[in-house]
Amino acid sequence: MNDKLYKVLLFVAALAMPIVCGGVVYALVTDAYEAFEHFGFFKFLTSSEWSYTEGAEQYGALPFITGTLMTTLLALIFCIPFSLPVALFVGEYFKGTKTASVLSTVTDLLAGIPSIIYGLWGFYTLRPLIMALNISPQGSGILTASLVLAIMIVPYAASLSAEFIKMVPNDLKEGAYSLGATHAEVIRNIVFPVAGSGIFSSYILAIGRALGETMTVTMLIGNTNNIPDSITSTGNSMASIIANQFGEASDLRFSSLIAIGLVLFFITAIINMIGKIMIKRARIS
Amino acid sequence: MESITPILEFNKTCVSYTKQTMAVKYVSAAIERNTITAIMGPSGCGKSTLLRAVNLMHNLYPNIRVDGEILLNGENILSMEPIDVRRRVGMVFQRPAPFPTMSIYDNVLSGYALNGIRLSKTDKDETVERCLKSVALWDEVKDVLNKKGTFLSGGQQQRLCIARALAMKPDVLLMDEPTSALDPIATAHIEELMQELQKDVTILIVTHNMGQAMRISSKSMFMYLGELVEYGNTDAMFSNPSDERTKAYLTGKMG
After folding, report:
1. What is the pLDDT of residues B191-223, one digit of tens each?
2. Domain residue spans in chain B?
3. Could you confirm whether domain A62-284 is CATH 1.10.3720.10?
4. Contact residues on chain B for A174, CB-CB shorter than 8 A
């Protein structure tokens, strides 16, 4: 009897999560419906107007989709030269040593720092630096946001990549050494190819993190509702336009913000799903 | 001159994993050219450890110390560059492990690729064919050379790994229980192959299997607790072991 009760309780608790997820999607879809109906689904995604003049309201998501994709892609590019060496250090060169565990703990700590703190650091340290270097006059913009985002996703990419690098069988590495390979040759010809799909999937998951990051980006991107014409110009991301405007928005603007949220939800969900599937495959092989 | 100098000579070779304990203790033995020498002994006796000292595999692990001398054609390998030693001393491991991201063709040539040596297409084709023929794998795989090596059966994979080692034209081939993961038919194949190969290469094989040592080797070593207890002609050792411990092991009283 007790066993049965336990089972039911477990079942209810486990069912709660899919229900919450379904509820989120339902709420997003119903609230976004007005915007999609008013502008048309594809029109909404491809329009770059964002004006709330009463009577002639125009809302389009393109500047924010562009802003999100640009910051994410740049963050990914900036993150690779830092996360890959950390992963190699922890997973191969100093595998199993104290030094490696200290480094991986410190890197993981970076993941625990609240994003507002990254935002403050970016705003008061990196932004003046970018201005001083004459990279952009206002300091904030796509580049500034991407640099801080890159630091934020390094721990995710590094620790997961390190796992896959660690998993490369010793048999293969010793086999390569026995043929006269150097350490660098073993890494290039054996470790990277064998761990490749796993490393790739860790970067996909890191992208998933970067896509939805709100606070840091809002503080550093400049919050202008235009399509950025270069990486130093200002812009806005999907998450940050929502954060900036949800308080004052109503009716059609509110619905448009929710619609952007829905698009962001699906992009993030798809990216995460691809990453998870790839990780599963990489683990099996 | 060549016939007088043994191809490989252990001279008071010691290997230790920690400061207190020695896994291989003062082993001295000379290995004759173009022979198969079996290293036998119970688990943990240091036979694999001794074998792995010959291609400086222990250098990969900073805690392991190798002392004494190991002479390859009269030259002490312990003071040579590991990369140079490993190109002259090939190794086949217990579990067949072809490189999973490479085709059969590329697996055979992996030694060259790993060392950054470029071969012409004709040289490559010639090397692949020669090596796969010498391990009797050519007929089975000649039409699927571009397939991944991991598609092959265990025995075929192990022969591919032998071909990979032979491609570098080593003087000595080390085999660390190369058939322990294989079925009896694949084992018989590999044993037959080793008999063929000893024309070109000196083989040092670690084996758990006394029958295997008896079938293939002309010389045998018996190790126990890190010491080389007995070394001599295989026939003589099996019919009339000179040490009590060898006798106990060979008769199954100690394993």
Report:
1. 999 999 999 999 999 998 899 999 999 999 999
2. 8-250
3. yes
4. 57, 60, 91, 93
Residue A189 in contact with partner chain B when CB distance is under 8 A: yes
Chosen from B51, B72, B99 to mutate, greatest number of chain A CBs within 10 A: B99
Among B229, B175, B161, B233, residue whose Cα is nearest residue B51: B175
What is the arithmetic mean of pLDDT over B134-158? 92
What is the arithmetic mean of pLDDT over A161-165? 94
> Which pLDDT does position A285 carry in this prediction?
61
Q: Is B55 on the interface with A (CB under 8 A)?
A: yes
Are the Cβ atoms of B57 and A177 closer than 8 angstroms? yes
CA–CA distances in Å: residue A173 to residues B49, B52, B87:
18, 14, 15
What would the mean pLDDT of A196-210 be, rounded to a whole number? 91
pLDDT per position as a tens digit, A53-99:
877 889 999 999 999 999 999 999 999 999 999 999 999 999 888 99
Token readout for B219 is 């010389």
Among A172, A178, A185, select the one facing B99 at the smallest CB separation: A172
Residue B107's identity, in one-letter code, is: N
What are the residues facing B23 on neighbouring strands? none
Burial class (CB in 10 A: 0-12, 13-18, 19+), B206: buried
Asked if the C-beta of B107 comes within 8 angstroms of chain A's C-beta atoms, the answer is: no
Three-state secondary structure readout of B59-82: HHCCCCEEEEEEEECCEEHHHCCH
Q: Say if the Cβ atoms of A179 and B83 lie within 8 Å.
A: no
Query: ipTM for the complex?
Result: 0.91
CATH class of residue range B8-250: alpha beta
**Mean pLDDT for the stretch of residues B94-103:** 92
Does B84 reach chain A within 8 Å, measured CB to CB? yes
DSSP A92: I
What does the alpha-carbon distance between residue B209 and residue B73 come to, in Å, rounded to a whole number? 29
Size of interface A-B (CB pairs under 8 A): 69
Q: What angle do CA B183, B198, B150 make, to 5 degrees?
A: 40
Could you give the dihedral angle defined by the CA atoms of residues B56, B59, B64 and B65, in that order, rounded to the nearest 10 degrees? 70
- Cβ contact, residue pair A177, B60, below 8 Å: yes
Quote the CA–CA distance of A265 and B173 in Å, as a whole number: 58
